[in-house]
User: Fold these one by one.
Assistant:
Number 1:
Amino acid sequence: MTVPELVTLHVWRTTPAALPRALTRMALDPRRLRATPGVRFGKLLGTGTGTGFGPGDADPTRWAALTVWDSPAAADGFDGSPVGRAWARIARSAVRVDLRPLTSRGEWSRRRPFGEPSGGPVTGPVLALTRARLRARRAATFWRAVPPVAAALRDAPGLLARFGVGEAPLGWQGTVSVWRDPADLVAFAYRHPEHRAAITRTPTEGWYAEELFARFQVRDVVGDRTVLGWHDNHDNVDDRGGWA
């Protein structure tokens, strides 16, 4: 797959009372999302706090869609699509993050949805996406390894937002984190001892049956940033929700 010009992350906050409707949407909309005109690849996702990857970490009032588009013009039609309208009806707040792929390694559902981006110099905020399908027999050791990394991530310099994502309550897990600039992300990913230890263990433990790691330039943020769990230190964001 060629490198897409635009990837979007839509995140919706719902009320607890809307949970049955949200679960209905999660059952019906994955196929509808993939059938939306201009969509190359799309996933509907539940979310969590990012402190663990079991059912206890789930956030039943926040849901997301990660979508790879043929063009920005196609993405502009999402709000008027059946999926976009359905989620808007049950959401009390929402945010859209526009992304440009920088690097991507691995596969998601046996595909490389972001192509093979060549990276290049970037200034300003970046988003990191990790996604994995756990091997059932290795899941327990993986979950035991998560808390120290999650605790370190919480206080990492330059972190603007973070949360867990998943296609299912167990075994199909991932994280989204937003960083003030690429240097902050690199510092945590490769220099923090807890995260480095987890990276070192990954090939020997054999946790994942499938994995993907990708980084994106954050091109724009439109809507309610608090849906992402945004920190207060966002001086480089203008009042409309875009990047200043």
Number 2:
Amino acid sequence: MSKTKVRMGMVGGAQGAFIGAIHRIAARLDGLIELVAGSFSSDPTRSQATAAMLGINPTRCYDSYQQMFIEEAKLPADQRIDFVAIVTPNHLHFPIAKLAIESGFHVLSDKPATLNLQEALLLEQTLQSSDCLYGLTHTYTGYPMIKEARHRIAQGELGAIRKVVVEYSQGWLSSSEDEQAKQAKWRLDPQQAGISCCIADIGVHAANLAEYVSNLEITALCADLNQVVPGRPLDDDGTVLLRFNTGCKGVLMASQVALGEENNLNIRIYGDKASIEWSQMEPNSLWLKSHNAPTTLLRAGVALKSQAAQGALRAPAGHPEGYLEAFANIYVNFAKQIEAKKAGSLASNADYDVPGIKEAIRGMAFIENAVEASSLDTKWHSFKIGLVNYE
């Protein structure tokens, strides 16, 4: 085991779990992180089988996350895990993250951050009384061309932002038969998923992307969430009108019953000088459009203005990079953040472009505000975080 690598422990992600495997691939892509321990399942036999598959020392495979934190904390500082990756259903995110932080371990969590907003606010309090880092895998902020779009907007190339349109459409929950899949069962269970399925699963990604790229914050919304397939306890489709802190408007569409769609996330932002358009189905391309000039196709690795975009690329222009690489950009930035923390050179968490507790809280607030707004007849609702009204 290399002493120079950042050591990772994982909770969840046993054999057959889609997102756990994605996290592991992303973590090891740049060679800065080593998975050395885990509690991969509540079933100890399944957890041990996963550890064996991954080549992890069986003594570092634990029957519970509580046991992992206790035993890892006993190890010398140069052997114990540095951070914990949380890849469980939503209802476990908060207790695992809280105990990890209290045990002295940094946390990188899958989204949404917690089961509800109150837990996210409590997690913020836990972080404030610790010296630990917290990151959230809002994967789509890791794409190079998303970082380029954010940079160009921040530099004023689009002028004053007038409208934001973001859409995330999937079709994998189009019928009642789809509910039998393991990934569907917990997402449609309020006890494990929380108060929302579609908006909590993919709508929160779209909201985060809209704020990240535009450099704006949602201050009010009008929501219409639906259970398209009869009998479902949680939403599988939704449309949310948005109002941002500058007064500009937007619309967010999210659906998991859009038959034929795969993972169709796209964003369009319109300013008074120009507009941009990006789609995850063609992630190396960013369209820049204006009123009196030719439309420009910007390509990853070619004449990019943003250092963040250039730094997020691993291959020369023309070599496709996608979801795994975007995911890995979150991991590599978090690893560098931890290294800077160890070295005493961490000036600001913002320098590492890792979604953190602020994004966690805003994401949970978006979910709760959207669900509440959809249940009421009033058109517009202020975006609230706890008792704070942001309009």
Number 3:
Amino acid sequence: MQQRLSRVTTADGSAIAVATVGEGWPVVYVSGWLSHLERGWELPEERAFLEGLAAGCRLVRYDRAGCGLSDPTSRPPSLEYELEQLAAVVAELGDEPFDLIGASLGAPVAVAWAAAHPGTVRRLVLYGGWASGPLISPASAREHILGLVASHWGLGSDVLTDIFAPDAPASARAAFGRYQRESSSAATARALLELSYALDVSPLLPEVAVPTLVVHRADDRAAPLAQAEALRDGIPDARLAVLPGRSHLPWAGDGPALVATIRRFLGLRVARTPAGTLTPRQQEVAALVGEGRTNREIAERLGIDERSAEGHVERIRLRLGFRSRAQIAAWYAERR
């Protein structure tokens, strides 16, 4: 899959970057705290997660103001501004109802949208979210993290990566730490994190009148399971699916299980790929890895760029459940 980039403009003139992947009915994804449409697409684990969601539908994502490819802004973050940006994105979809996925900070934003615009949303998915930001963690812990992000963004991003993605390989955590720093300035990161801690949509939950699935990992280190239960209990007829794992980032840990859970609820086909099954191109790349070829050599052999070769190798590793390139080579040798 390839993503298509465009821009929309909010009522106050802010330019918001939008990425669309796939074809079919629209599924709008409101991301967590920080995002960068290009950097996220280049991160193999996140791309695999997004491609899994986008199969058979049109996945629409965007960078909120001040993040990623969107314009900087002088407006402080607020729920009102979040909804203005979401309104600009969905205005491009016309009158067609869409499915809405809110992840992390995107979950309370999605709740507020669904409560105010029930006729626009077909189904609502809330992953890793909360009803009350002040109850995510003790006030002392929140102040410590906010201070660390503001005073030392490099260290702060690394600490948050360890909280958000403890189940991810070290290489993916290092890449995500850089991704966060490239997504926004320290000031914007702190302001958005402070908004995350401040948002409380508990009063809006009874007003959500669309079919809703709340999905959460049992031992999420960034958002307690109790907040997922609060969302489930507050939204009429909402369902709660609890998956194993500690990671807050949706692509970290068992991303395919999360994708399958969301797709079933949205009525999308869930691919049943036998374990260890690779696409023809992935088999070709695995063979070259088994021969000891570098990413550059694989790229030259296949006529692709080196970054694409690296992405193929990482998706093979994810599909096979391996942690290293050496395991791919050993797997290929054994199959031969």
